Target: L-cystine ABC transporter ATP-binding protein YecC
Amino acid sequence: EQGAAKALFADPEQPRTRQFLEKFLLQ
Model:
């Protein structure tokens, strides 16, 4: 699961997803 999250987190075409993951991971 972490691999998939990393892929989305590093995907520049998904800034909203990255923001969501940032908030989720930093919660």
User: Anything to note?
Assistant: Helices lie at 2-10, 15-26. Residues 16 and 22 are 10 Å apart (CA to CA).
